[in-house]
Input
Amino acid sequence: MKLDMIKLDGSTAGSVDLGEDIFDLDPRADILHRVVRWQRNKAQAGTHKVKTRSEVKYSTKKIYRQKGTGGARHGARSAPIFRGGGIYKGPVVRSHAHDLPKKVRALGLKHALSAKARAGELVIIEDISGVTKTGTLAKQVKDLGWKRALIIDGAEVNADFAKAARNIEGLDVLPTMGANVYDILKRDTLVITKAGVEALEARFK
Output
C-alpha cells in the first residue's frame, strides 16, 4: 500500500510503499487486548504486601478463658477477626507477569500498526533531523495538528530531536525496537519516519 510522506514543515515529500502484511491487516481486538494485558501486567511492580497473623506484633497470651464468658472462644489478639490483627489471604509480593508467545506479540504489533493506518491516524515523515529548538518543534507540531502523538524513528532516535521533544506535552519519541502496542494505541497519532518504516519491516523479516 502507498501512503503520502510529509516533512516536518508540512510540505509533501513524495510517497512510500508500506508492506501490506504489516500495515494493512484487519485489526483484531482480541489480539491487541492480549498483548496490552501482557505488557501492563509485566510492568506492574507487585510490591503490595500485608502482614499475616504470624507477622503482627501482639502477645500470644490467651485473651480470656475458653468457657464461661458467654462470648466466642479466642486465643491470641492477632487473629484476623480483631482490629489490628493479621490479614487473612491478603496480597503478597509477587510478579504479575505471564507468558505470551513471541508470534502473538509480533502479530499484536502488526495489528496495532494496521489499526492506526485503517483509522487514518498514521503519518509517515521523511526525516526528523535538523531540529534543535523546543519552541520551533512545538510550533511545527501544533501546525501539523498533533496533540497526542508518538514518533517512531530508526534504530536510534536523533539526539537533537529527542532533546527538543522531551519537554513537549503529549509528544513521545521511541526507537524502532521500543515500538510497542500499548504506546501506539495510547496516542491519537502515530508518526513514523522513513528510516523507522524500513527498520520495522526489517524487524518482522
